[in-house]
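Summary of Year 1 activities. Much of the first year was spent building the evaluation harness for sequence design. The harness presents a backbone, in tokenized form, and records the residue chosen at every position. We chose the following record to illustrate the format because it has been used consistently in internal testing since the harness was completed.
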């Protein structure tokens, strides 16, 4: 690019132009850009010759709060299992019995093979896990 006599030549990158356009949009409409809004897709930034994904992410995927709500591959949801355990007394007894058996198991803390950990550190961890909240045991 040739600058006029006594002038200065400046090149603009596409990023600068898009920022200026966003600033003008803000000045004219008063609406701030909705960066990463849950319902508005992002503007593509890849060159046009780039191949896209086979499967795209679902819209609003980042605001799903129920685990595996979008897919039901097992056919049974967590809520259904919880309701079943709450409504069948015999199943609740089986679950509580298993929890009691697991909580009565002897446990220990030891270093991995090939690692050295001081006995003081192991005892500190045993004391921590014996009373996780400082008052109650498991």
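For this record, the design step produced the sequence shown next.
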């Amino acid at each position: 690019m040739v600058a006029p006599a006594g002038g200065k030549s400046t090149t603009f990158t596409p990023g600068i132009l898009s920022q200026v356009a966003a600033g003008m949009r803000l000045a004219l409409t008063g609406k701030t850009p909705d960066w990463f809004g849950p319902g508005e897709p992002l503007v593509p930034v890849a060159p046009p010759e780039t191949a896209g994904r086979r499967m795209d992410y679902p819209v609003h995927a980042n605001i799903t709060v129920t685990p595996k709500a979008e897919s039901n591959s097992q056919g049974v949801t967590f809520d259904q299992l919880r309701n079943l355990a709450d409504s069948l007394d015999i199943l609740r007894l089986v679950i509580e019995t298993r929890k009691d058996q697991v909580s009565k198991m002897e446990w220990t803390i030891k270093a991995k093979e090939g690692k050295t950990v001081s006995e003081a550190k192991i005892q500190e961890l045993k004391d921590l896990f014996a009373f996780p909240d400082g008052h109650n045991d498991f």
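The radius of gyration is 30 Å. Quantitative recovery figures across the full test set are reported in Table 2.
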